[in-house]
Amino acid sequence: MTESRDAGPGLRNPLRDPRDRRLPRVPGPCAVVVFGVTGDLSRKKLIPAIYDLTNRGLLPPGFVLLGFARRDWDVGDFESLARKAAEEHCRTEFRPEVWERVANNLKFVQGSFDDDNAFDELHHTLDELCASHGIKGNAAFYLSIPPAAFPVVLKQMERTGMADNEKAGGWRRVVVEKPFGHDLKSARELNDLVDHVFTPDDVFRIDHYLGKETVQNILALRFANTLFEPIWNSHFIDSVQFTMAEDVGIGSRAGFYDSAGAARDVLQNHLLQLLALTAMEEPVAFDAEAIRIEKVKVLNAISIPDDLEHYAIRGQYDQGWLAGQRVPAYRDEENVPKDSRTETYAAVRLGIETRRWAGVPFYLRTGKRLPRRVTEIAVLFKKAPHLPFDKTDTVELGHNQLVVRVQPDEGVTLRFGSKVPGSAMEVRDVSMDFLYGEAFTETSPEAYERLILDVLLGDATLFPRNLEVDASWRVIDQLEEFWEGKEPEKYRAGEWGPRGAEDMLARDGRAWRRP
Ligand code: BG6
User: Whose alpha carbon is nearest atom 7 of ligand 1?
Assistant: First the structure.
């Protein structure tokens, strides 16, 4: 949908209007202001995404990127950093003539977050850019900064009037990176502040998993087909496993990570969002509000087991081997305290207290320094109630499974029993695969490309709303309270997590899938 017809979040319905879906969605003239523009996220994701969007012709001619950071730089320094970032991390081909278009519309303002003069200059520069680029006041502010700095930056925007749609004469939106708060209380405080400074509909909370094609495909798989929905309930489903495994360690993020841990870093957001999409009811429309309503219902229906000792497991990686290389223990990573109790692995069993899901366990696990990077959702169906075959012929028959491979090898696999060729009636599991890379000629955009474009178009469908954030923290707060002061279990880097996580499933007569 084009900007001129963009009626704001909640009103676009591309699934219902096929003409609409085919139109290239290009926003009107606008600016993106990035706070923390020299940081990791900006260099690896945001600037490359802006380059890719330009390369795909999805940004308007009147577009400016305005960086704000502490470094004592001029616009030339910023341009070299941005060019390097785009060259190294862009998804589409790097073409110097496309980069020229981006480079001609870059600006940089230097300053710290508590510096009123710097914010006044930012305000002034933004106004000038709007005038020189034919931008009718439209600007998105991207907070790619440590959570502790959110309040001061938001207050500066309030003081200068930069967040005010009316004063600006166009839309003013804010993009807040996760983690959105540290617990329920701080998330609510932050919500109050951000909703006070900006109009609530102009607040875009980023969970980049929702920008992934494969994650959006969960909704297509469930609601565009007749095949799966009739069996998507406790009558047919035995259990669901969510795995988000990473082989990397914490890199240079100790400052943030050691005060967060795996549960706050990814369970609270990415994994609970995957659970919500997998378990929610069909939305009445494919728009922000209708989807939010269904996700919130599921998140509010989550129950945690009484026996957390056995069903909420935390781990921390010890030294080990990965891809033939020796890697250090978490406590030996740079800037991590030697006695840190922060978890780098978390696994938990959750329930959903609804008629559809009564009694179905949802197992979630995530960890760093696991054998490989893989994110998947495995829906395990109940075994056939009766097998008319000889028992010895079905020993290798497991649960039917539908596996959504979020990454890598994006696609969907269906596992079911099949007869082994030969004279006996031996039945064994086989897989049927759909691979994005083979089925479509287009490659998937990066999550940040999609999400930045949606912010500029005012489409909030793929952004969690504050009630979802609230409901997710209510789950995590209970787990954190139970874990408080306890030592996480050690697991060797390069292995699939701590013993306790294996025992958790074994206690239920199940086992984790080996992705
Ligand atoms: C981020 C977490 O949100 O997601 C990181 O803060 C994690 O710890 C990252 O590494 C993983 O993202 P992806 O897209 O590579 O799976």
Answer: 266
